[in-house]
Amino acid sequence: MARVRFEDVDLLGALSRIVDLHTQHYKEDFDLDKELISKLAVSDRSEDKQLLWMSRPCGTYTLREWEVYLEGSHENKVWRFYQEQTNDPVLAYSVTYTS
Prior knowledge:
The chain has 99 residues and is of the alpha+beta class. Helix content is 40%, strand content 19%. The chain is built from 4 helices and 3 strands; from the N terminus they run ααββααβ. A 3-stranded antiparallel β-sheet has the order 2-1-3. The mean pLDDT is 94.
């Protein structure tokens, strides 16, 4: 698994490019992601700035990282579903927003 770190990038622009290249259906999911990411970017809570984002052939997801690690949470179930129960090629990214 390749691990690459990007810093000081136009986050929404970079994720939009990934959607253009990888997501074939339900690209409008990314509109929800952009709204959520923009909202969390101005939050005072540090846990709102640590996100996990995935691009799938059929849509995208933005999840707060800490919620993904909460066993039994909706976010945990979403993340595990795409890891364990589908053969979809998923591009997953850890996103840390700093101002």
